[in-house]
């Protein structure tokens, strides 16, 4: 599975069925290869964001939660539960994470600390419209248009 980016240090990441992630720079050279919790079927469906500088990658899992790895150092930086991670959006220094059956969690990207929770037991729409807007829901029968990264309704 390959995911392509526009970052200057990492242009592509690939991961295999065993969870090994390979980072490839714009010249096609391998800059990292290490074991992660990635799953080809799962992470291909919900995405794997990396920071703009190409230094960190964020991987969500259904069973174990959210993980941050250093691409440069090829090591786990932090991990946070609970599981049931579906979508991850990286906005500035925040991760906006859809948690199935729980809602939307906002975490600090550098430490993984929980900053905000919007409880939403059933989400069937979680779409980043542009750099500063998210559409999610339903919440009490309505879809909500949120400002990113504050998660304030528009």
Automatic annotation (TrEMBL):
Superkingdom is Bacteria
Q: Do you know which SUPFAM superfamilies this protein is assigned to?
A: Quinoprotein alcohol dehydrogenase-like
* UniProt-listed Gene3D superfamilies: YVTN repeat-like/Quinoprotein amine dehydrogenase
The protein, known as: Uncharacterized protein
State the species of origin: Spirosoma flavum
């Amino acid at each position: 599975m390959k995911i392509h980016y526009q970052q200057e240090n990492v242009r592509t990441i690939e991961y295999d069925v065993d969870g090994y992630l390979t980072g490839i720079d714009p010249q096609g050279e391998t800059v990292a290869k290490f074991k992660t919790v990635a799953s080809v079927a799962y992470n291909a469906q919900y995405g794997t964001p990396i920071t703009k500088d190409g230094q960190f990658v964020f991987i969500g899992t259904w069973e174990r939660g959210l993980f941050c790895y250093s691409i440069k150092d090829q090591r786990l930086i932090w991990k946070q539960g609970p599981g049931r991670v579906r979508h991850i959006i990286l906005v500035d220094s925040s991760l906006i994470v859809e948690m199935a059956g729980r809602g939307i969690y906002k975490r600090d990207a550098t430490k993984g600390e929980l900053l905000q929770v919007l409880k939403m037991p059933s989400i069937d729409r979680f779409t980043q419209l542009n750099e500063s807007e998210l559409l999610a829901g339903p919440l009490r029968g309505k879809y909500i248009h949120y400002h990113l990264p504050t998660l304030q309704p528009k």
